[in-house]
Design a protein that fits this description.
The complex is a heterodimer of chains A (444) and B (157). Chain A has helices at 20-25, 32-36, 40-50, 62-67, 92-99, 101-115, 129-144, 175-182, 211-223, 225-229, 271-278, 314-317, 337-351, 357-374, 382-391, 404-418, 420-429, 436-439; strands at 78-83, 119-124, 160-165, 206-210, 232-233, 245-246, 248-255, 261-266, 288-292, 301-302, 327-332. Chain A is an alpha/beta fold and 444 residues long. In chain A, the strands form 3 sheets. Chain A has a 5-stranded mixed β-sheet with strand order 8-7-11-9-10, with helices on one face. In chain A, strands 3-2-1-4 form a 4-stranded parallel β-sheet, sandwiched between helices. A two-stranded antiparallel ribbon of chain A has the order 5-6. With 157 residues, chain B is an alpha+beta fold. Chain B has 2 domains: 6-66, Arc Repressor Mutant, subunit A (Orthogonal Bundle), CATH 1.10.10; 79-156, Glutaredoxin. Chain B has 7 helices and 4 strands; from the N terminus they run ααααβααβββα. The chains are: A alpha/beta (444), B alpha+beta (157). The interface between A and B is large, with 62 and 53 residues. The structure holds flavin mononucleotide, iron/sulfur cluster (SF4) and FE2/S2 (inorganic) cluster. FE2/S2 (inorganic) cluster (FES) binds at residues 84, 86-89, 125-129, 132, 134 of chain B.
């Protein structure tokens, strides 16, 4: 394979990469006027033809989502940018916002033009203070240069961006939780339909897109759909419903590796390549026991599944929930899966918004059962009990409003199905491994 | 006497033009008040509600959904130091880091040091897992933190 040239990350190592002047010197905004003179539908068609799928976790085709907006709507129509990035293991949006904010802003302007929106709300998790200040400055630079505001570059197109800071809740990343939070309410996800494209923010048609997705839009407009489709994995010819996995992807690698990193590669690299070639291998000369393929919600790969391609279809083939955020977390062979699973369950229990009983109670009970196992009080029937609870919660069994619950169930299902022996041995040994430091971390 | 100064009220009003209704200013207003007063008291909730033309219960409902905001019974110290307890940090010593710092400063997570300098808290994944374990000091992230480098950061607060 020819060496891969980063596109999303082409500028991030350059000096002063966040400044408007360096972005423009590298050709940024140079064709914005031309793109804004195109009919909105033509911009949508380019994105649709590229095969771009959302990078926020669900992998929904971006151009197709944009066509769900009502035709000839009098407006306003809104774009909501999902910068809540809170899935454990995930940090690629942070790189994009801190190191190349104008690539994102250009993508926002292009997307707004395509969907006929004049106002974009960027929902930024509170913890990203540096991103906030960099974006705030970049937006000011654009307004001063006539790139944001009314009559952008004399094209008659209007667009402005409002930065809105969250307050530390994972559920604000779910698109309708995000909308409720932006409206000033508790972030309780909405029952769908209606989907946001029909009735979203302030009850108006709304498109929610992830930061990386919008950066891809900029690259697709400048480099073309052929370029985008030359990267990644084409659709499976035996599956007419597979839209393929085109384009570059920002993979995050963390946990027990020598060089944790965020790296841009074609969709479809394997977990093994990421660990060995990009993250310096597993630390301390150890081996990987389990690998999270795309944020903890997606479950686990076992050590025999490391050659799984991390494209949109790959993780599902080995029983994981999906590609998710492509955030890879490596767990070495000296680590207890009981501890790892406890950490995942504790997170989900803490972050469940509480409005669906199977999710609120299920996440809490799974955490309690794992706590019991960790303190040496586990019972042999606990593993089946965990599987039963996990199997009854989520959109897939149809008992909850949003996907947090499926993401809470998946690590449990994968851990117990793929590492059952280790859990059984642990329970049988009646060992209590929980340390004083771990005790301090109990849910509250 | 009102708890929100005129300056703070002006800052909240300055948010209004960004949104089609005033309710959407709830989070920005809570942040402004919380940053300045280190807690959002019952009185402050009533005053925010007046400004946003909401019922105080609506502001209270939103505020309490986000564990982020403190009420007057648990005011924040001058600084807030968050320790990530999610998976990538836990795998690289985040739990032990928190324990050591809590011992050193004689606080439990959720509490403020006796001198009022810092409130220690848990955070879930800070989105900086390549630098695990990491901590957030107010809203600035520090990566690859050891007990000693954490203490050095805290001493400078
Ligand atoms: C519990 C939960 C948390 C989510 N968190 C995020 C997030 O932090 N960022 C994000 O872009 N998408 C997140 N999503 C996915 C969004 O709901 C939505 O699919 C996405 O923002 C759409 O943008 P995209 O099509 O560009 O990917 C989350 C979904 C769920 C169920
Ligand atoms: S599934 Fe869980 S997080 Fe999602 S709406 Fe229901 S209770 Fe809330
Ligand atoms: S797990 Fe700690 S920053 Fe992500």
């Amino acid at each position: 394979m020819a060496t891969f040239e980063p596109a999303l990350f082409a500028r991030i190592n350059k000096p002063d990469s966040a400044a408007l002047k360096t972005y423009q010197a590298d050709g940024g905004y140079s064709r914005l006027k031309e793109f804004l003179s195109m009919a909105p539908g033509d911009v949508t068609n380019i994105v649709k033809d590229s095969g771009l799928r959302g990078r926020g976790g669900a992998g929904f085709p971006t151009g197709l989502k944009w066509t769900f907006l009502p035709k000839d709507h009098p407006g306003p129509i809104y774009l909501a940018i999902n910068a809540d990035e809170s899935e454990p293991g995930t940090f690629n949006n942070r790189y994009l916002m801190e190191l190349d904010p104008h690539q994102l802003i250009e993508g926002i302007i292009l997307a707004c033009h395509a969907i006929r929106s004049q106002k974009a709300y960027l929902y930024l998790r509170y913890e990203y203070g540096t991103s906030y200040r960099v974006l705030d400055n970049a937006i000011r630079e654009c307004r001063a240069a006539g790139i944001l505001g009314t009559n952008i570059l004399g094209t008659g197109v209007n667009c402005d961006i409002v930065l809105h800071r969250g307050a530390g809740a994972y559920i604000c990343g779910e698109e309708t939780g995000l909308i409720e939070s932006l409206e000033g309410k508790r972030a309780w996800p909405r029952i769908k339909p209606p989907f946001p494209a029909i009735e979203g923010l302030f009850r108006k048609p709304t498109i929610v897109n992830n930061v990386e997705t919008l950066c891809c839009v900029t690259q697709i407009l400048y480099r073309g759909t052929e370029w985008f489709k030359s990267i990644g994995v084409p659709p499976d010819p035996n599956n007419p419903r597979d839209p393929g996995s085109f384009g570059p992807k920002l993979y995050c690698v963390s946990g027990h590796v020598n060089r944790p990193c965020c790296v841009e590669l074609p969709l479809g690299v394997t977990a093994r390549e990421l660990i060995e070639e990009h993250a310096g291998g597993v630390w301390k000369g150890r081996r990987a026991k389990a690998v999270v393929p795309g944020g903890i919600s997606m479950g686990f790969l076992s050590s025999s599944e490391l050659d799984t391609k991390l494209d949109f279809a790959g993780p599902g083939r080995v029983g994981c929930l999906g590609l998710g955020t492509a955030a890879v977390v490596v767990v070495d062979d000296q680590t207890s899966m009981v501890d790892v699973l406890y950490n995942c369950c504790r997170f989900m229990s803490h972050e469940s918004c509480g409005q669906c009983t199977p999710c609120r109670e299920g996440t809490a009970w799974m955490t309690k059962i794992l706590e019991r196992i960790r303190t040496g009080q586990g019972r042999s029937e606990d593993l089946d009990l965990l599987l039963e609870v996990a199997g009854s919660m989520g959109i897939i069994p149809g008992t909850t409003i949003c996907g947090l619950s499926d993401g809470a169930a998946w690590p449990v299902k994968n851990a117990i199905n793929k590492f059952r022996g280790e859990f059984e041995d642990y329970i049988r040994s009646r060992r209590a491994s929980v340390t004083s430091a771990q005790k301090l971390m109990a849910v509250h | 006497m009102s708890v929100l100064s005129e300056e703070l009220r002006e800052k909240i009003r300055a948010e209004f033009p960004k949104y089609p209704n005033k309710r959407a200013v709830t989070l920005p207003a809570l942040h402004l008040v919380h940053d300045t007063l280190r807690a959002v008291s019952r009185e402050a909730i009533v005053e925010i509600a007046e400004l946003l033309e909401l019922h105080p219960a609506e502001v209270h409902d939103t505020m309490t959904f986000y564990n982020f905001f403190k009420d007057e019974t648990h005011p924040l110290g001058r600084h807030r130091v968050w320790f990530c307890r999610s998976i990538s940090c836990a795998l690289r010593g985040g739990e032990e880091l928190l324990e050591t710092v809590c011992h050193r400063y004689n606080v439990h997570p959720g509490e403020t040091t006796a001198d009022g300098r810092m409130t220690v808290e848990f955070a879930e994944c800070l989105g900086a897992c390549e630098g695990a374990p990491c901590i957030l000091v107010n809203d600035v992230c520090h990566m690859n933190v050891t007990p000693d480098s954490a203490s050095a950061l805290i001493e400078k607060l």
